[in-house]
Amino acid sequence: MEFVIEQGKQPHEECSTLLLPALSIGNVGQLAVDLLVSSMKAERIGYLDDPFVLPCVGNDAYGPIPCGELALPLEAYQSPSSRITLLQQRSPVIKGMMVEFAKNLANFAAASGKQHVVLLSSLDFGKWQKIDTSSGLQIYYLSSTNPDGRDDFCEQLGWKKLQEYNPAQRCWKYLSSLAERSSTLESDLPFEDELEEEDYYPSLPFAALFSCLKAKGLKVTCLLCYCSEGDNIQDAFHLAQAACRLLGLNPSAFHGNESGSWVIPFSWQTVYGPPPDMSIF
After folding, report:
1. Where are the beta strands (DSSP E) in the chain?
2. Which end of the chain is more exposed for a tag (fewer CB within 10 A), N or C?
């Protein structure tokens, strides 16, 4: 993985927290990062080139006026005032290469002096075993602070640890062993027809990233929410709000265009098309 810095830009050493999405259902993590980049007015400082991420190119996602900047698969932004580096991923990883990509990203994070990595991702609502909507949308977390994934600060914020995380379970153990090796051994991977219900969570991108970042000795916090495919804008707001609470940021200071706080990315205007004509109901 190569980090290419834009001309005239320079990474700030004080930006020791790295925030990025882990691709999953509904693209909620990516939408949340877009919302944070736009609201924090973070500056793009460069991009990452990795052989395991599919190429893509698009228009600038944040500005209403074309300025000649193209959106790339892996973009790095920073907000010195918040001491945060944000990484946006706009295309998926090549099938079967998620662990290798996670290793490359972990090496980059460690080499660039990051101390805390925050992963934003989503989980399939159909896999939710204990449904509790009494308190609205739930945030679940997974932390490297303790071996069982528990974190006292996240508990104080009222979040629930991802109960399905079991470091002794075969796939979680397999991920940990891969993360600590210099190369993978395909023969060790369980066959797809042998996968069980409990193997769903460690098969997701956030699990590979969590395992590889943890193996590098970095503090890692995963923030997760359950959702379904569809209009996931509200899920993105919910996840971005959780990230702000974790990092001690105040969205009301963003001075945005949504309820006086959030700055809605310009690209969201065409994400799901216009609202339905209510006269037909």
Report:
1. 2-5, 17-21, 43-49, 58-59, 70-71, 74-79, 84-89, 116-124, 140-143, 160-161, 219-227
2. C
Coil, helix or strand at residue 280: helix
- Kindly state the average pLDDT of the residues 121-125: 90
- Spatial separation of the C-alpha atoms in residues 210 and 13, rounded to whole Å: 23
Backbone angles phi, psi at 252, to 5 degrees: -65, -15
**In this predicted structure, what is the pLDDT of residue 37?**
94
Whole-model pTM: value is: 0.89
Q: Return d(Cα 22, Cα 45) in angstroms, integer.
A: 21
Neighbours of 279 (CB within 10 A): 5
The two structure tokens encoding residue 44:
């793009």
What would the two tokens of residue 54 be? 């599919």
Give the separation between CA 141 and CA 149, rounded to whole angstroms: 8
Cβ atoms of 92 and 54 closer than 8 Å: yes
How far apart CA 118 and CA 124 sit, in angstroms, is 20
Instruction: Give tens-digit pLDDT for 4-40.
Output: 988 888 888 888 899 999 999 889 999 999 999 999 9
Task: Say if residues 239 and 250 touch (Cβ distance below 8 Å).
Answer: no
Name residues whose C-beta falls within 8 Å of residue 49's C-beta, 6 or more positions apart in sequence: 1, 2, 4, 74
Does residue 2 sit in helix, strand or coil? strand
